[in-house]
Amino acid sequence: MAETFKGNKTKAAKVAMSVAFCLAVSKAAVGFLTGSLSILSSAVDSILDIAASFFNFIAIKKAEEPADTGHQYGHGKYEAMATFIQSIIIFVSGLFILLSAWDKFIHNKHPEVSSAGFVVMGISIAATIFLTIYLRYVAKKEKSSVLEADAMHYSIDLYTNIGILAALFIIKLTGWTVIDSIVAALVAIYIIFSAIKLSVQVSKQLLDSRIEEEAYNKLLKVLDSFGSYHLDFHRLRTRSAGNEIFIDMHLTLCRKLTLDEVHQITDVIENAISKEISGADITIHPEPCSHTDNDHRKCNSSRIREGLKKLQK
Known about the structure:
Blueprint: H1 2-34, H2 37-63, H3 77-107, H4 115-142, H5 145-174, H6 178-206, H7 213-225, E1 232-241, E2 244-253, H8 259-276, E3 280-288, H9 301-312
Parallel strand pairs: 2-3
Antiparallel strand pairs: 1-2
């Protein structure tokens, strides 16, 4: 199963590179044939998309490498680091679009696109819509922040191209050239805020913040369901790196249980957590209770043993 999800992420990165390559070639060809600077600039942007997707592909491959002596918790944070870098690139792209919109407004500029340009941009929009939806689907399914960032990166092209075509259509109908700057500014503001949101989200991984609320509540629910097998749990700590979630805790158990029984209990709890939270790496440190041999009324070892027998059936 782990191999499947790895394959999905690398496949998605390859698809992104392939689509970006096809768009870059088609835009460059039409741009040179028609002499359209806007299409040639769009082709250059697609070449940069190829570079970004290749960078993400390398990050995904690196994150998939197993733990080693130098990285005992694995390489998952390579993906988080790549996402953070891409969020900065997306933020700068949004800022550049905003400044360009201001320049267009000041100098009353508006895009000029030939008929061939409309065709190639239409194809580009259709291909980018497919790619963005696909990348977001895989990112959500595999919990991949770097693919989410890649989808956001391609959405910049999508919104920009749609904005240009919408502006051209409105300009043709009304003659209001200022609409081009307004549309570009709105797109830029959306991109900037999305980049900030993405950087804040991935920074939680880099700073070892607690796992997401939904997963954390699932964890507490599982632990509470085994309340009759342990006296309490404490020092519960969680963090994530890429697709992996690391959980460790101290678990207080009856001191009269054998080592084998303690191992069985921790195994049962770990398996239950793994079923609810995929990709969880769980470490449980068992501790003996403070009850003495005279605390017969408080001792729950016999009840726990009966419970273990039921679980093993």
